[in-house]
Amino acid sequence: MSKVENFGKYLLLEKLAVGGMAEVYLAKSAGANGLAKLVALKRILPQFTNNPDFISMFKEEAKVAINLNHSNIVSIYDFGIEDSQFYLVMEFVDGRNLRQIINEMKKLNKSFSIDQAVYIIKEAAAGLNHAHRCVDSHSGKPLNITHRDMSPQNIMISFEGETKVIDFGIAKAETEAEATKAGTLKGKFSYMSPEQAEGYPIDPRTDVFALGIILWELLANDRLFTGSNEGAILRKIRDGQVPAIRKINPTVPPELERIVMKALAKDKNVRYQTAANFHKDLNLFLNTQYPDFSTHDFSMFVRECFKVGYAEGKEKLIAYAKIQPPPIEPYPSEVISGTKTTSEPLPLPPIGIAKQNVSWDGLKSASLSKRPMSHDTRAGVSIHSTSNTQLKYKKVKRTSPLKDVIPKIALLGVIAFAGFVGYKNYFLNTKKGPSQKAVSVTKKAPVDKSNETQIDMAATASTRLSVSSEPPGARIFVDGQSTNQFSPAIVTVTVNKPVTITLIKDGFYKYQISKEFNNASSLKAVLTAMPPMGYINVHVANGGTDSIITVDGVRLDSRPPIKNYAIPAGKEIEIKAFNPMNNLEGRTKVRVTPNKIQDVQIILKRIKK
Fold first, then answer.
1. pTM reported for the whole predicted model
2. Could you tell me if 231 and 182 lie in one domain?
C-alpha cells in the first residue's frame, strides 16, 4: 500500500493519475462523528502554483463544474487552497476511463458489442446535454457550456456500469474571464470538430461531433482520424472525410449508421443541433433494437475485463476504509520558532454547502500572494495560505495571539458546560414536580435510565439482510435508495422498523415488499416475467392533435402522433381515437410481434347514435 499523506482535512491515499497541470489522488475526507467518504482530489502541480494561466484554467473548471448536477457527470464536492496549492474534490468513480477499457480489451481480443457502444455514448450525451443547458446558480442565466475535450479519456465507466463525463478543465462558458483567442486550439486533436480544427468559434455541436467520433471508433474497433503528425490529423478533420461505418462493420444496422453519420456531419448546421436530439435517437435505437440490453450485464462485462484489478481494488478500498483521516481543527494553529511563524489554513466548507457565497476573485488573489488573506465578508469564508515570512520582533513585546484567546475560550467552555448541566437538571426535575429538589435526580433508580437507553438502541439497531431472487441479477433498492448491488447480496436494514425492499430486473415486473426484519433475516423473491413487448406508432388521419387516444381502454396522456408506444406482443389490442371538438371517432385492432414497430393509422368517422 502506498504511503498516505495529510492534505488539510483530507488524507491522500493513492495517486491515481498525473496530467499536464495537475495530479489526481484517491483521498478520504473527514466527516462528522468519525464518518468519512472516499473522494478523488485533484490539485495543481507545485511547479504551476504561481502560474496565473494554469490557476485561471483550474478555477474555471471549478466554476463550470460547480453548477453541474447530473448522474452522468462526476460531481464536485469542494474547492480551495492548501499549502498554496489549489485543489478540487470530486466524486470518486470506482472504474476505468473508456480509453483504459479499450486498451485492455485489445489485449484480451475483445470489443464492445453494438448495444454496449450505443449505451455508453447515449449516457455521455445525456450528461453533456445537462452541461449544455446548465444555468448559473446565481443569476439563472444560461452558461452555454461546451466541453471541448470529449474523448475516451474523459468518459468514466464504473464497475457498476455507470457512464460519467469528467474533466471540464478547458470547458468554454460565457462566464470565462477572457474569451478564447481566435485560432487557439484546445483539446485532443483526434477528437476535434472541423470548426474546432479550423480555429473557428465553437458551440455544443462540437461536443456532438466528438461523441460521434467515439461512437464510430467503438463500432469500427479502430481509430477514425489518425496521422503521422498533428497537422495530418487536422487536415483529415477539416476535409471531413468519414468512411461509412457499415463498410467497416457490416453488422451495424442502417438506422445506426444514419445516426452516426448525422453526428459526424462536416456542416454543423446539418449535424445534430443538440446533445438531447443525439441522445433521443440513440435511446430509441437501443430500446427498439436491443430491448433486452441490461446495465447489469454490461457491468459484468467491464468487471470481467479487469478481473484481477477489480478484485485487488476492492481489497485496497477495504484497507483504506480502516485508515482514519486527520481531525478537522476548528481554529488555525500558530507555531513560533525563532523568527519564523507558520499559519495553518482553515478548512474550506464543502462547495455543495457554501457555493453560493464563495468569492472566486478572492481565491485567485490568494494563490498569487504570499501573505495570508484577510476574512472576505462578501464570501463568508475565511481563506488562509501558508506563509514563511521572516518576522523581526522583540521577545518582550512578541506574544502569540492565542495567549489572549485560549483563556477566553476556556471560560466560555466552563460557562457553557455549567449552563448545560443546569438546564439538564431543571428539565429532569420538572418531570417530578415543581417542588422536587435537584438532588432528587441523583436518587433516581439507574434501572429506569438504562431501560430507556436500551429501547432507543433497539430502535436504531441494524442487521444484515440476505436478499436473493429467482432469477438472480435484480437491482436492489432499500426504501427507494439504490444499494448498487444485485441479487443475491447482503444489505443493511434497521431492526424492528418497517423497511421497503424493491427488486428491479429488465424483462420482469417490479417486486416490492414492506415489512420489519429481525436479526439474521433473509428475503427470497420470485420475479414474474413480463410478456414480450412490441411497439406501435399511432397516426390519426383526420383528427389533428386534438384527438384523445386510448389503448385497451387506457387513456394516453400524449396526443397524436404517438411514437413507439409499448404493448404486449401476440395479443389483440384495441386502439381508439376520439376528437371531442367535432365528435368524431375511430378505432382499430392490432396484434404486434415482439420487438417490432407497427404503424397504426386511424380514420375518424361520425359516431352513430
1. 0.55
2. yes
